[in-house]
Amino acid sequence: MSVLLYSQECEACVDSIGLFDCKGCMNCIGCVGLINKSYCIFNEQKNREDYNKFLQDNPINKKENLEKILTARESLRRKVPQRSFFGFRNNNVSGNHIYNAHNVHYSFDIKSGEDSKYCFTVRKAMDSYDISFTGDLSECYECLTMVNCNRVIGSHNIWESNDVYYSDNCYNCNDIFGCCGLRKKSYCIFNKQYTREEYGKILVRLTELMKKGNEWGYFFPKELSSFGYNESIANEYMPLEKIAALAQGFKWQNNIPSTSGQETINFSNLPQNPKDYSDDLIKEILACQKCGKNYKLIQREIAFYKRIGLKIPERCFNCRHEDRMKKRNPRVLWDTTCFKCDSHIKTSYKPADQKIYKLYCEKCYQQEVY
Ligand SMILES: [Zn+2]
Ligand SMILES: [Zn+2]
Questions:
Q1: CA 310 from chain center: how many Å?
Q2: Which top-rank group of organisms is this from (predicted)?
């Protein structure tokens, strides 16, 4: 089937279901921490016949079978050593999901970086601090959504630019301050063109003014955001209730647009066997079993469910996304100790989860599992 289903923290695994922290596995079900294995079920080696029989006896188009696999995997996770951190080829790092990094701390989902801190969803960062959703940055600070930039402070959506301050949506610019929507410009302040000398003088005055007002070095104030906290993906990574969000000065959107009550078919009226799904299903409107909102299917999605033999999901894509996000560890670090050697570790496992799982330091994990 060439897919990996209901799995987490895996690398190069195919044709498997419900794996956690596995690498290079094929035809495995409900396994945890395995490397280069085939035909394993709940970490036990089986032969091909036993494996196929298990799949035949427990088809995953039945919800209860899938739940059975995931529940068994969860109890297995609680028994075997668990990494306290995910990542590889690092030196002196803290956070989670860090790869090819040196001296990177409190960072999450970063592929390649050096001497940086507080990097969230980042590809290649050098000497940068407080950056999110960026690629190839150096000496940047308080930056959001930017690619290929050097020395940018407090800005959003800047591409291929250098020495940019408090600007938004500018491409191929150098030496600009407080600009918006510029392309291929230099020495501009509030979108107005200056000479190099004028720019230098005004920049000094502006930074001094901002320092006095305690604004220098901070990102744009939240009052400027056009969105409610609950509409933004900040709420996915750092969820807040309405009261807490408002108390922190964020906006809140009470009426997020959606459709409900327009459904054209009930789940009980869908074909029982996924092989019988027809392309006509794209015309149908479904109602999410969790939030009640309507959603539709796309043709490729139907073809996928049909090919893999999966039931059409009873939750809308937003609820499914939320379910998956909840499986991730938060972007927070806690101090704890290695289950095996008692050495101090930092982990993104919540304190409650630290009691459930046997969290190992990287060294002990490598010794035990590899
Ligand atoms: Zn929903
Ligand atoms: Zn240890």
A1: 25
A2: Bacteria
